[in-house]
Every structure is written in C-alpha cells, then in structure tokens.
Amino acid sequence: MNNHGHASMFSATLEDKLGSARHVAVLTGAGVSAESGVPTFRTGGEGLWARYNPTELATFEAFSRDPDLVWRWYSWRRGIIRGVKPNPGHYALAEAETLFPRFSLITQNVDNLHRRAGSTDVHELHGNIERSRCLDCGLFFVEDEAPPSEHVLHCTCGGMIRPDVVWFGEILPETELLFAQTEAQRCDLFLTVGTSGLVYPAAALPLIAKQSGAYVVEINPEPSAIARELDECISGASGAILPLLIDTARRLRTSA
Ligand code: OAD
C-alpha cells in the first residue's frame, strides 16, 4: 500500500508527482522502440552497431567516402521502421499529452513511431529518417513509400541527398535543443526512458532537470550511465511500465 491507500508499483513520491505535476517532460531513446522490433544502438550483440561500425556509417566523412554504403544502411533501417508498429509505450506517451497542463516529448529517435502512435508534438533532437536534404542547395525531401534505394539519390540541382539525421560530430538542431533544455529546466517531473545516457548533449537533459529541481525518473531494464544521478530508476521495459504509469496518472488526476 502507498499513501494513497491502494497497492501500487510506484513510489509515493512518484505518485504524488503523477497526480500534481503541472509540467512533465519526457526524453526517449532507442529502448522505447525496442519492443516494436527496432534494434537499439548499444544493447549487446543485437544492437545495430554491433554489426556495423558507426564510425564507418554515421559520419559525414563516411558519407563523403562511400555515399552508397551509407545510403544502403539508411534504406535498410527505413525498411525495418516501416515494417513495425508503435508499442504500448508509444501509445501511453501519446495519451500523456492530454493528462498534464504541459507535456513535452523529446526524442533521440529518428523513427517516427511517437507520431504514428498519435503524439502531436514531438521534438526530435537527432532528426528524422524519413526526411532527407540536398547537401548543395539544402532542399528537403520527405520519403514516401518508395522502395529502398541501393544508391545515393541526387537532387535536381545535382547535389547528393543525405538523410536528415544528426551524425557523430555534428551539432544538434539548435531550436530543438534549446527547447529541450528549457523544458528540462522548467518541468516538475522528468522521465528518461529507454536511453543509455551515453550520448551528449541529450544525456545532459535529465541532469539539467535534476539540477533545476524536477523529480527525475528513469525507466529502463538496465541502469543507464547516468542512473546514479537521478531520483529513481524503475527497472523494466517501457512497453510495460509506461502504460501503468500513465494509467496511474489518469486515475489520480481524474479522481482529484
Ligand atoms: P542506445 O542503444 O544507446 O540505448 C538503448 C537503451 O534502451 C539501453 O539503455 C537499453 O537498456 C534500453 N532498453 C532496451 N530495451 C528496452 C525496453 N524494452 N524498454 C526500455 N528501455 C530499453 O540508444 P540511445 O540511448 O537512444 O544518435 O542512443 C542515443 C543515440 O546514440 C542515438 O540517438 C544515436 C546513437 O548514436 C545518433 O544517431 C546521433
């Protein structure tokens, strides 16, 4: 039993926050899409980059050296993403938009699954795999259901088209990063879900939230690199934990 008089898997402090927070911010990483069947980057032998060397694929240098190789890799990843569906964790976060006076969803994922689950306001720190842009003239392209291409595509201006994702060594989109940092500073409750906490500046967001006075909770089957700095870690899969957490918030907020 907790101090609300019923059995709960969540701590009394977290329940208080779920019931009373005015502003909730969430950072998601590859782990939220794992249960949909999208490989994460760093989980054991199954991570994408256990099979492919990231320094050979996800950098501007790699793209300049062998654009077809990098393009094929992204086509393969797009194919996986198109073939999967959002999972209960994504749907719970879409519902969360309606529960709190302010709710900010910040993601490192490029897979569109939050939007496909119904989230209407998704802040993408690392770009989007369905979007590409011309290296020369900067024109954007949004992929349709076209079959994956084996070769890099070219713009009408002749320039090479690259995926509009953030590669190693590149800076994050300024507006989205500034938004994320501000939301981390201002929220009452911050959830960091399915991210290893290894890649900055995204990994600093839970720490900024903590320093600014928010209650910071991690949801991950394994402790992340920053777990010890946070208020609470819930060990489990986001597809299982997030629906319970959002159900709890709904119950507390509708009975208040
Ligand atoms: P990682 O692959 O580094 O970490 C995935 C995290 O998800 C790990 O901490 C897992 O324990 C956790 N996880 C696995 N299954 C889960 C589940 N069912 N529920 C919840 N968590 C689960 O992915 P990210 O932290 O997102 O950047 O990686 C950060 C960035 O590194 C990526 O955005 C990408 C990569 O370099 C760029 O491409 C710029």
SSE order and pairing:
Blueprint: H1 12-20, E1 23-28, H2 31-34, H3 48-51, H4 54-57, H5 60-65, H6 67-82, H7 88-96, E2 102-107, H8 113-116, E3 122-124, E4 127-134, E5 140-142, E6 161-165, H9 174-186, E7 189-193, H10 204-211, E8 215-220, E9 232-235, H11 238-255
Parallel strand pairs: 1-2, 1-7, 2-3, 7-8, 8-9
Antiparallel strand pairs: 4-5, 4-6
Helix pairs in contact: 1-11, 7-11, 9-10
Provide a short characterization of the protein structure.
With 256 residues, the protein is an alpha/beta fold.
- What's the helical proportion of residues? 25-40%
SS summary, helix count: 11
Distance between the termini: 19 Å
**Unreliable spans:** none
Q: Quick check: average pLDDT?
A: 91
- Computed over alpha carbons, the radius of gyration is 19 Å
Q: What is the CATH-assigned architecture of the largest domain?
A: 3-Layer(aba) Sandwich
Task: Give the tally of structural domains.
Answer: 2
Strand order of the largest sheet: 3-2-1-7-8-9
- How would you sum up the major sheet? 6 strands, parallel
Shape: elongated
CATH class of the largest domain: Alpha Beta
List the ions, cofactors and other small molecules found in this model: 2'-O-acetyl adenosine-5-diphosphoribose
Strand percentage:
15-25%
Order of helices and strands: HEHHHHHHEHEEEEHEHEEH
Beta strand count: 9
Describe this structure in words.
The chain contains 11 helices and 9 strands. The protein is an alpha/beta fold and 256 residues long. It has 2 domains: 152 residues, TPP-binding domain (Rossmann fold, 3-Layer(aba) Sandwich); 70 residues, SIR2/SIRT2 'Small Domain'. Strands 3-2-1-7-8-9 form a 6-stranded parallel β-sheet, with helices on both faces. It has a 3-stranded antiparallel β-sheet with strand order 5-4-6, with helices on one face. Helix 7 runs parallel beside helix 11 and helix 9 packs parallel to helix 10. Bound molecules: 2'-O-acetyl adenosine-5-diphosphoribose. The site of 2'-O-acetyl adenosine-5-diphosphoribose has 26 residues, from helix 2 and helix 11.
